[in-house]
């Protein structure tokens, strides 16, 4: 067996943490031959829940689990970390404005980014799940001196999976036959789930579903699915979010290509290098393949004017968020 990979999960005592940690311990994050050492970071109020989960992880007797450590110290949590899953975030409270939420999360993600910059392993990969995920990733990335920007990503895989599932349900095809979906922009209600390049069993999706369904049902259903889950379940998505986080990191480490579909892509939010006209540095969602352990944005897709108009709205929202956190002094 190789040396354990250090995986740090913040907000480990929360809902997503409870679902995520057992899947990591069982080998679903990195593969069946990669032992993991788990570090659980919590705030004092959440520490008991994280410690209880650590006991349950021990009781799982997972062969790949080399150890579990709980801490409230970011410097300890990120020392030598290879994979950092930043889940813990400040939820929006009653009467809180968007700016208040960004400020509260800046107080979490700037110190965590700095601790990653100071102590992480050279190959560190970071996935931000806690909302507002894209801008929290930007804050952490900007505080992480010495870590390449491309190592900071935010989760739009849940949106991608939701889009695949909706198209599968509409066409009656299994999800395994769907390819080429794209989520553009922010992980918020302005996101753009795009079917123009999607295929179902090799056939173009736009030939199988009508434009009204795409505009009036598919896009709003996917973009507002988070709110739908909250309304129906009484709290935000947890197991599906954890599952998407597993998909994201597993693809990042092991590659997106599969034997019969080497060109397969997924959706990932990562710091823009100007792709598709998205301003440099904004953490926005793009179609991307993972090749040799790195995300490569799929370039050159045609974006029709009606889709571009939707994407522009989401990019404008990300720019507003960036300006708000810049004004708060949160971008180093
Ligand atoms: P939760 O409230 O159940 O758990 C959050 C945990 O984070 C709590 O235990 C809390 O104590 C901890 N925490 C708060 N501040 C922390 C800090 N500074 N350091 C370490 N831990 C800290 O919430 P949840 O349901 O697990 O969701 C977590 C986040 O994920 C939320 O922001 C939620 O909106 C977001 N989310 C994102 C997606 C996505 O697709 N990007 C999907 C679902 C949920
Ligand atoms: C989701 O997409 O399910 C979550 O981001 C919703 C939320 O606000 O926590």
TrEMBL record:
TM region positions: none
InterPro entries xref list: L-lactate/malate_DH, Lactate/malate_DH_C, Lactate/malate_DH_N, Lactate_DH/Glyco_Ohase_4_C, Malate_DH_AS, Malate_DH_type2, NAD(P)-bd_dom_sf
Active-site residues from the entry: 187
Residue ranges of domain Lactate/malate dehydrogenase C-terminal in the record: 156-325
Residue intervals of the Lactate/malate dehydrogenase N-terminal domain: 7-145
Signal peptide: none
Catalytic activity as recorded in UniProt: (S)-malate + NAD(+) = oxaloacetate + NADH + H(+)
Catalytic activity, EC: 1.1.1.37
Residues binding substrate, per UniProt: 92, 98, 131, 162
Pfam families: Ldh_1_C, Ldh_1_N
SUPFAM superfamilies from the UniProt entry: LDH C-terminal domain-like (SSF56327), NAD(P)-binding Rossmann-fold domains (SSF51735)
Alphabetized UniProt keyword annotations: NAD, Oxidoreductase, Tricarboxylic acid cycle
Highest rank taxon of the organism: Bacteria
Binding positions (NAD(+)): 11-17, 105, 112, 129-131
GO biological process assignments: malate metabolic process; tricarboxylic acid cycle
Example GO molecular function: L-malate dehydrogenase (NAD+) activity
Function: Catalyzes the reversible oxidation of malate to oxaloacetate.
UniProt similarity note: Belongs to the LDH/MDH superfamily. MDH type 2 family.
Protein name from the UniProt record: Malate dehydrogenase
Organism for this UniProt entry: Plantibacter flavus
Phylogenetic classification of the source organism: Bacteria, Bacillati, Actinomycetota, Actinomycetes, Micrococcales
């Amino acid at each position: 067996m190789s040396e354990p990979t250090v995986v740090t999960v913040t907000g480990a005592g929360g809902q997503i943490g409870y679902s995520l940690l057992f899947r990591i311990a069982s080998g679903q994050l990195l593969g069946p031959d990669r032992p993991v050492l788990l570090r659980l970071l919590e705030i004092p109020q959440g520490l008991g829940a994280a410690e209880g989960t650590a006991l349950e992880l021990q009781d799982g007797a997972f062969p790949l689990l080399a150890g579990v450590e709980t801490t409230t110290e970011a410097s300890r949590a990120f020392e030598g970390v290879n994979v950092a899953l930043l889940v813990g975030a400040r939820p929006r409270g009653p009467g809180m404005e968007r700016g208040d939420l960004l400020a509260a999360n800046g107080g979490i993600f700037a110190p965590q980014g700095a601790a990653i910059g100071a102590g992480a392993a050279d190959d560190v990969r970071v996935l931000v799940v806690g909302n507002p995920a894209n801008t929290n990733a930007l804050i952490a990335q900007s505080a992480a001196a010495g870590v390449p920007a491309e190592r900071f990503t935010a989760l739009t895989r849940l949106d991608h999976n939701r889009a695949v599932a909706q198209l599968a349900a509409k066409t009656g095809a299994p999800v395994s036959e769907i390819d080429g979906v794209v989520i553009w922009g922010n992980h918020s209600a302005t996101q753009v789930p795009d079917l123009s390049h999607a295929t179902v069993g090799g056939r173009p999706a736009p030939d199988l579903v009508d434009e009204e369904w795409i505009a009036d049902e598919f896009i709003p259903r996917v973009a507002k699915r988070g709110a739908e889950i909250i309304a129906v379940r009484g709290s935000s998505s947890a197991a599906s979010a954890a599952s998407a986080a597993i998909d994201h990191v597993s693809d990042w480490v092991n590659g997106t290509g599969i034997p019969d579909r080497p060109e397969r892509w997924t959706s990932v939010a990562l710091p823009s290098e100007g792709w598709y006209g998205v301003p440099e540095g904004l953490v926005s969602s793009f179609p991307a393949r993972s090749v040799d352990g790195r995300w490569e944005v799929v370039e050159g897709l045609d974006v029709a004017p009606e889709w571009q108009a939707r994407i522009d709205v989401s990019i404008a929202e990300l720019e507003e968020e960036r300006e708000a956190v810049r004004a708060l002094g949160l971008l180093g």
